[in-house]
Fold these 2 entries.
Entry 1:
Amino acid sequence: MSPNRFYPLSVYFRRRFGCRVRKIALDAGSSCPNRDGLISAGGCTFCNEKGSGTGLAGTQPLRRQFLTARERMLTREKDVRFMGYIQSFSNTYGPADRLRGMMRELAGLPDLAGIAVGTRPDCLDEEKLAILRDAPFEEVWLDLGLQSAHDKTLRRINRGHDAACFAEWAKKAGDSGVKVCAHVITGLPGETLADFEQTLAVVNSLPVSGIKIHNLYICRGTVLERQWRDGELEPLSQADSLTWLVRGLTLLRPDIVVHRLNSDPDASELAAPGWALDKTKYLNATKQCLLESDVWQGKALGMPLSEWFNLDGRENG
């Protein structure tokens, strides 16, 4: 019996490609309309100036970033392929030709199984979606930020778009054959567990193929840090965060691939909570909580455990 009571990305990749697939983070030097003044200059309240960037943009082209990381990773393990993840900021922002150039630059790289492109739903249009759909890779994922399905929350965190915008472009992308990975956050300011449950109900209702669930953490140099230091908000405790996450998994469609279950902040940028630094401990606690509570992904939707462990011949990754 698989120890996973959720559908992890490692299992999906092994079934899809027949081997282990590792992600390589790539930095295209992209910007964001929520930082360059088009929408606002402050960005989302939780996002710092790096925007999850590697800092490699401007020093190495995408091809060199990929090849350097590939060479390093192949010294540690064999029989592995890679998924290039263009991660920082909003990578479909700007002219369509810029996105087309990224796809062209990455095409034909050795051991590249596919790409994932991180962006905002308000930075998409039909032409850009067609570029992604027709990109010359075995698989294309669109990492699309939702964070919350509640417009009041999106306004509070200065997101700059509404939930309807996400729903529109998640549907268009999914219907076109581009795999959508929705990003959501537990413990957003002002939200309750019931609010998070409703966000997952929206995700379930759309052609979403994957999900990243992040626990809210306070990053240095952000609006969120100032609000936290002023006593305006408090991040969830580890116990409460686990409660939200486990409950969320029980409500998640069982076919949705779980790309991530928690945030992965750098120690140098984390202000709070301290427990967020120990990613492995949190993941192990999640698996233990699922086991001890005798719950699993999709249980609340009627998925029986016997079917879960045999669904489509899944095996542990």
Entry 2:
Amino acid sequence: MDENAFQGSEVPEMPGVDTAQVLQFWHAMVRPGDVYEMRIPKPQDSRLGVTSGYVNDPTSFVSLAQDITGDRAEAVYVTLNQVAPALLARCQNRLQRNAKNLTGDEDILHYRNLLIDIDPIRPSGISATDGERQAALEIGDTIVSFLSEHGWPLPVIHGSSGNGGMLIYRLPDLPNTPESTAVVKRALESLAGLFSTDTVTIDTAVHNPSRLVKVLGTVAAKGDHIPDRPWRRAEGVCRVD
């Protein structure tokens, strides 16, 4: 992205949801018939509380996401790994306001995906500048090259969470056990030791099985939408393995 794109006082146009990207994300992440939780932890109207639903259908997934722009929610997430199928009965292919029952670590069947979340260091509650975001994306590209050189396949998701970099690698279906959690945590800590800098950090806290991940094609809307720290879509390359 052009570093000079948002110089001056003019506020950039608000991004909308890219439904084609949302659908690509679903097919890269989800095997047919699997159940995932979609969640909006921070709607812009706090009276709505945490909004959540369980989805097993791509058409429903896109339909639920398509109207959730930055003026409605700070971000739209989905569980990184599939949940127990019985949870679909909580809220089937729809979203519920002020949801009381959310996915816990014990509700995840397997570790199927590894999230590498690459964040520019900045004050909490605000979007990244173009330069901060670009620094995180460059670290993400470096990690992909490094892992490829060590025999890893390409990630199924290679892109941006809106403010930083986001990589998702497919794992063999690891059992949801403390031992698997420890393996994932050590992998993230190793990557953080190799690639975190004074300005960009690899988040080592995303090792738990019920971790949420930003839905590509939806809007990241932290803080106000201002020229040098605008809201952006999460976007990237989605590969179906």
